[in-house]
Amino acid sequence: MSRDGRSTSSQEEDSKTQHKGYRQCMWISAQSSCRQPDSPYAYFVCFCGFLCTLLAIGCSYSYGLLFPVLLDEFKEGKAKTAWVGSLAYASGSLFGPVVGVLCDRFSHRTVAISGGLIATVALLVTSQAPNLTLMFFTFGLAFGFGCCCIFFVVLTIMPRYFIKRRSLAAGLVLMGAGSGLIVMSPIVQALLSVSTWRMTFIAMAGMLLLTCILSCSFDSNVGNIANEYSDQVLKNPGRSSYLCSTLDFSYMKNKEFVIYLIASTTCFCGITVPLIHMARYCQERGIDAKRTSMMYFWNGIASVVFRALTGYVCDMKRVHPKWIMQAAVFVAGTAAVLTTLSFSYKQLLACFVVYGVADGSIISSMNILAMATLSPKHRSQGFGFSIFV
Description:
Elements: H1 8-32, H2 40-61, H3 63-74, H4 78-94, H5 96-105, H6 108-126, H7 132-161, H8 166-194, H9 197-208, H10 210-214, H11 223-235, H12 255-268, H13 273-284, H14 289-314, H15 321-339, H16 345-373, H17 379-388
């Protein structure tokens, strides 16, 4: 018994009640200062996400222009040289589950900034690589991991900021990947014309460093998400402040998500092959580097336009993203087959532009499907697993 006549257990209960009330007050204060979805700040975040994907994916896709130069420099053969770029593309998906866990454990902003720093350092080290073997680790793995952090954060944070135009927002940030080809291809080609490939990598590292500044806008404290999070914590006050700190595969019980996963995995087995080998294929057909660069430019234009257009169409009630994905995959396969039967510059350009149209539609519809089939609780790790597979 205490001095006021109450039992010790009663005092402990009062203490717990006061503590719970304190937590409720703290959550009310946090909600009053959080970002609101569909606000002007949400569109600012969308713009920053667009620029981040432009720089990160643009640097990655530009390996197609660096491929012939590295092939002549190291003389290691087409297969081994192409594997460096292919590994960088694959790493952007391979580390998806890891980045998903990091986003659950830390903030989106922290993960994106860290990824930008890692990718920047990786490009600087790659510029001094004496052989392709080191490039497998610096460009293929380290740079790929950094780009995965940036790209993953941009795609998973957009649904928090948008409700009415969620698919359009996804399409707009995915425009950055296609815009990367438009912007980075002429820049990389110009750098290769006036300097060495090593200086080109250094310049790319400087541009990629800008993603760290842009990522500062990725505030995870958004209105609707904060409300869901606070409700779960108040119902379970004994739980940790971060709900998902370990791998959780419960999203695999979602049949619709599993079907989508199988379809997207099959599609991605060959979707990046034309982008890597087109530059060398044109060189073998006698097409100069300047016209090859313009092919990548127009491919990027087509991809950019249809990524945004696909996002806009997917917001319509009568249109399902899977229909768009099915049609786009068929067009992409047809364009790839016709490329092998084309020999003139105009024929190859037409095929590559059509392939860009299909590529843009596939990328947007694929990512929109992933987000639509996952609940907010499973979105980070589920989407990470989907890009991993």
